[in-house]
């Protein structure tokens, strides 16, 4: 028993020593001097430091706020030096005043890390910050990408700081290199907190047509926006800030609310500072400079970034809660340990109790271990579930995109087939070869898409069998080249075929390689602009043949080159709907031939796809070799003979109403024009110039597809609705989309009617007639809605229905006000009115005719004559006085106009009123 007690006492002493050692484990103090915590960006820096520091049990973070005062920050640094912190972090308000304090810290052996604002001639350990020159450069390049010519105002941050100098330098150098950009004004934030509003307002008042404002912080950008809002210039000026903090008034939220056009994301570096401090504490080597990346956040990526940041913020909050719980548990554990220690001291000589206590501890340790294993298991399961959920989300999104693309690709040719068939079956309709051609062409297109889907299934199930025949590769490629000549001519594309061999022969499955080349050429023409270039080159090498398809189109985003051959993948710069399996199948077909398919591309400079097929037949199985004749082109049907040719420019017929067709499918556009030209003056657009063309011609009605290059049909409709020149034009949407969400989006964008493909031509015709009839009914309403308000002191012209605040009412109310101000001016003309409205004379004429049913000259004269009736009741005014007061050049002209309008002369009207 004594031996046991001795062992127990020794064990107790060892345990106590171990506990004391654990209790006394050193905590490293990292001190941070923050010059201010007033703005969201600085608060975000502090928060990221706190979160990261929580991950290090042996670290204590001490943050001192300088409150924007250099004297306070110097005192804070001195305080941290006196506390002998293990690592000193400083975000300086200004470099020079802090040099002495920083050197003092270094001499005291305290490692120093500088954040955000670099300090020269100081031997600090590391600097962490964004390349401010690059920030300014990125902002300028973003402006260039939005608008070729622009007037810019730059709003700088505090004078003399390195970020301000570097941002301005990068921005100004980029602007100076571009002759289309002009900085018309510059202002700077002040240290005294007075802001930039007064000086910025002066700049806007002195400079007309400012397009962009580049502010060095999001807060300054918001101040500038508020000034512009006071002046009513927010629709004209786009604002770009710096920061990108996800807070109520942070850059991300301002971009999302469309207050800012964009913000340059400016990482705080708080997390990185803690990690580098930990490396210094652990005696690890660290770099001198750590450059943080910046990027542009605009409407294209703000939603994704905001959701990501909100998710991170949510996870960080969860981590803080878990950390708090862990600290509570540790505190509880520490209390229990202390209690156990004193209990063991009190009962240390009682061996039995010591034994029981040790056994209890062993049991507790086992339970703790089981608990830890259970926690690890739950964490692993959670990770697996999250991965599965993400994979399901990606798969679901890809599948939805695939079926949307397939639906669009199927329904457009079906529309042409059904509409052409309907036309051919109509009584008295002459059967036209081009309509048979449309049916034939689009039937072949549908067959090709169906075969592609079947091939996709066979490739996926690995049940594909090749039928390789010996083929003259030049003749084979040339036949496919011929199929695309007409497409090249229509789009004025330089289309060429070159080769270094005319006799080379390969064993190929002709159908599969035809699909490969057809897919590559279709993509090349789809993404190559008018007057671009597409080329095919055949190059014979020792071991095989290289066939390359090269274009001058939009190219491929560098980060996506490795993904474009994945099934269902759609490039981020691809604005057109597609199935996403074409390139995947093309690569699989090349592999089945023992070859390869590679891509070479620079974004914005086109792409080149290179197919390699080895010579010989050793790479095929014996059953895959067939005996086949060379390609026979003599019996092929010339599909181009049955397509709709590009028509000459429409010659307007004044007795017809005008129709603009916006559709990127040439066949469908040509078919609709051929069927509707007898009734309407038909104009066409492939979608690229749709808005400009609509503004140019001011059509009576518009038919538009949804899936179009650059802008979709909903965006085009919304743009026209928001433009006073085109807001009155009714729009019909023709699309393959059938979902409620698509209909809802169309209604929100101002679509008047929604027809789904395949559509009935008779229904389309009736829809056009109905919308135009409804517009004529509106003409009568608007003609009655504007008259002279009588018995008012001001006697101004206004709408009878003041409560109706639609665009057209406001437009004509503006016209009435302008005419009223110039009522006695006989030199006032339609041209002057159009200039004041900032639209062309033709656009004013067409809009007035479309909305009111009368021309603008008659409308102005009606206002003058209505006013003259009121003046004729004044006994003291002569006929001449009334004529000149209402803007008529002579009393005779006034009398003639008055009699033509009211059936009696002014004299007779004056007598009747007596």
UniProtKB/TrEMBL annotation:
- What keywords sit in the KW lines? ATP-binding, Coiled coil, DNA-binding, Kinase, Nucleotide-binding, Phosphoprotein, Signal, Transcription, Transcription regulation, Transferase, Two-component regulatory system
Residues annotated with 4-aspartylphosphate modification: 705
SUPFAM superfamilies found in the cross-reference section:
ATPase domain of HSP90 chaperone/DNA topoisomerase II/histidine kinase (SSF55874), CheY-like (SSF52172), Homeodomain-like (SSF46689), Homodimeric domain of signal transducing histidine kinase (SSF47384), Periplasmic binding protein-like I (SSF53822)
- Could you say which EC number(s) this protein's record lists? 2.7.13.3
Look up the coiled coil feature and give its residue ranges. 361-398
Q: Supply the source organism for this entry.
A: Tenacibaculum adriaticum
Record keywords: Ligase included? Answer: no
Q: Which PROSITE patterns match?
A: HIS_KIN (PS50109), HTH_ARAC_FAMILY_1 (PS00041), HTH_ARAC_FAMILY_2 (PS01124), PROKAR_LIPOPROTEIN (PS51257), RESPONSE_REGULATORY (PS50110)
Gene Ontology molecular function, alphabetical: ATP binding; DNA-binding transcription factor activity; phosphorelay sensor kinase activity; sequence-specific DNA binding
Query: What Pfam families does its record include?
Result: HATPase_c, HisKA, HTH_18, Peripla_BP_4, Response_reg
Q: Which reaction does it catalyse?
A: ATP + protein L-histidine = ADP + protein N-phospho-L-histidine
Q: What is the lineage of its organism?
A: Bacteria, Pseudomonadati, Bacteroidota, Flavobacteriia, Flavobacteriales
**Name of the protein:** histidine kinase
Q: Record's InterPro entries?
A: CheY-like_superfamily (IPR011006), HATPase_C_sf (IPR036890), HATPase_dom (IPR003594), His_kinase_dom (IPR005467), HisK_dim/P_dom (IPR003661), HisK_dim/P_sf (IPR036097), Homeodomain-like_sf (IPR009057), HTH_AraC (IPR018060)
Q: Which residue ranges does the record assign to the HTH araC/xylS-type domain?
A: 813-912
Enzyme class of the recorded protein, top EC level: transferase
Q: Which domain of life is it from?
A: Bacteria
User: CDD domains of this UniProt entry?
Assistant: HisKA, PBP1_sensor_kinase-like
């Amino acid at each position: 028993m004594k031996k046991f007690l001795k062992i127990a006492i020794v064990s107790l002493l060892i345990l106590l020593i171990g506990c004391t050692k654990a209790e006394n484990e050193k905590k490293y103090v990292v001190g941070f001097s923050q010059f201010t915590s007033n703005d969201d960006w600085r608060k975000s820096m502090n928060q990221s430091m706190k979160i990261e520091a929580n991950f290090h049990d042996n670290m204590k973070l001490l943050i001192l706020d300088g409150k924007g005062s250099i004297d306070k920050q110097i005192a804070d640094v001195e305080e941290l030096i006196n506390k002998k912190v293990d690592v000193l972090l400083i975000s300086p308000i200004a470099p020079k005043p802090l040099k002495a304090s920083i050197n003092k810290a270094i001499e005291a052996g305290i490692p120093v890390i500088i954040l955000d604002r670099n300090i020269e001639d100081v031997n600090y350990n590391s600097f962490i910050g964004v390349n401010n020159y690059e920030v300014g450069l990125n902002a300028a390049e973003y402006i260039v990408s939005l608008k070729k010519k622009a007037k810019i105002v730059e709003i700088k941050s505090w004078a003399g700081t390195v970020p301000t100098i570097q941002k301005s330098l990068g921005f100004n150098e980029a602007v100076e290199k571009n002759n289309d950009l002009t900085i018309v004004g510059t202002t700077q934030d002040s240290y005294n907190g007075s802001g930039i509003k007064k000086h910025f307002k002066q700049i806007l008042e002195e400079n007309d047509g400012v397009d962009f404002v580049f502010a060095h912080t999001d807060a300054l950008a918001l101040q500038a926006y508020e000034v512009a809002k006071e002046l009513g210039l927010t629709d004209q000026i786009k604002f770009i800030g710096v920061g990108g903090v996800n807070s109520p008034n942070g850059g991300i939220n301002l971009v999302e609310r469309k207050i800012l056009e964009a913000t340059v994301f400016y990482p705080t570096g708080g997390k990185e500072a803690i990690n580098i401090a930990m490396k210094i504490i652990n005696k690890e080597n660290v770099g001198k400079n750590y450059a943080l990346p910046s990027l542009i956040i605009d409407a294209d990526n703000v939603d994704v970034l905001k959701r990501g940041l909100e998710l991170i913020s949510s996870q960080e909050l969860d981590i803080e809660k878990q950390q708090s719980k862990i600290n509570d548990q540790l505190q509880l554990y520490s209390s229990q340990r202390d209690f156990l220690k004193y209990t063991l001291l009190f009962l240390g000589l009682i061996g039995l109790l010591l034994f029981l206590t040790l056994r209890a501890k062993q049991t507790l340790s086992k339970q703790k271990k089981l608990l830890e294993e259970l926690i690890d298991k739950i964490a692993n399961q959670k990770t697996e579930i999250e991965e599965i959920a993400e994979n399901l989300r990606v798969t679901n999104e890809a599948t939805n995109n695939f079926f949307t693309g397939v639906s669009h690709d199927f329904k457009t040719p079906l529309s042409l087939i059904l509409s052409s068939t309907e036309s051919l079956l109509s009584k008295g309709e002459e059967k036209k070869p081009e309509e048979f051609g449309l049916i034939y062409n689009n039937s072949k297109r549908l067959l090709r898409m169906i075969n592609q889907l079947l091939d996709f299934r066979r490739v996926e199930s690995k049940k594909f069998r090749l039928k390789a025949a010996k083929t003259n590769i030049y003749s084979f490629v040339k036949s496919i080249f011929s199929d695309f000549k007409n497409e090249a001519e229509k789009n004025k594309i330089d289309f060429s075929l070159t080769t270094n061999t005319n006799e080379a022969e390969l064993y190929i499955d002709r159908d599969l390689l035809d699909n490969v080349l057809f897919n590559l050429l279709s993509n090349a023409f789809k993404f190559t602009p008018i007057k671009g270039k597409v080329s095919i080159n055949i190059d014979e090498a020792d071991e095989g043949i290289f066939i390359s398809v090269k274009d001058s189109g939009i190219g491929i985003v560098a980060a996506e080159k490795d993904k474009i051959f994945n099934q269902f993948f759609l490039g981020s710069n691809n604005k057109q709907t597609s199935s996403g399996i074409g390139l995947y199948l093309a690569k699989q077909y090349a592999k089945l031939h023992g070859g390869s398919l590679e891509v070479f591309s620079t974004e914005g400079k086109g792409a080149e796809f290179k197919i390699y097929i080895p010579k010989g037949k050793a790479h095929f199985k014996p059953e895959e070799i067939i005996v086949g004749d060379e390609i026979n082109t003599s019996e092929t049907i010339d599909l181009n003979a049955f397509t709709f040719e590009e028509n000459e420019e429409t010659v307007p017929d004044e007795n017809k109403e005008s129709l603009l067709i916006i559709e990127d499918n040439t066949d469908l556009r040509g078919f609709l024009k051929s069927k509707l030209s007898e009734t309407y003056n038909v104009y066409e657009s492939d979608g690229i110039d749709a808005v400009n063309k609509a503004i140019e011609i001011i059509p009576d009605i518009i038919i538009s597809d949804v899936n179009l290059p650059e802008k979709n049909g909903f965006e085009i409709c919304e743009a026209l609705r928001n433009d006073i020149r085109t807001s009155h034009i009714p729009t019909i949407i023709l699309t393959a989309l059938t979902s409620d969400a698509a209909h809802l989006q169309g209604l929100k964008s101002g679509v008047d009617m929604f027809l789904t493909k395949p559509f009935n031509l008779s229904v389309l015709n009736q829809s056009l007639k109905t919308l135009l009839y409804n517009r004529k009914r509106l003409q009568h309403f608007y003609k009655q809605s504007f008259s002279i308000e009588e018995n008012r002191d001001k006697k101004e012209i206004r709408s009878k229905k003041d409560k109706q605040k639609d665009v057209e009412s406001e437009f004509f109310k503006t016209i009435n006000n302008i005419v009223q101000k110039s009522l006695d001016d006989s030199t006032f003309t339609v041209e002057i009115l159009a200039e004041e409205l900032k639209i062309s004379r033709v656009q004013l004429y067409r809009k007035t005719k479309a909305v009111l049913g009368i021309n603008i000259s008659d409308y102005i004269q009606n206002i003058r004559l209505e006013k003259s009736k009121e003046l004729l009741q004044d006994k003291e005014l002569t006929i001449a006085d009334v004529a000149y007061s209402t803007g008529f050049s002579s009393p005779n002209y006034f009398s003639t106009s008055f009699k033509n309008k009211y059936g009696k002369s002014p004299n007779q009207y004056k007598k009747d009123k007596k």
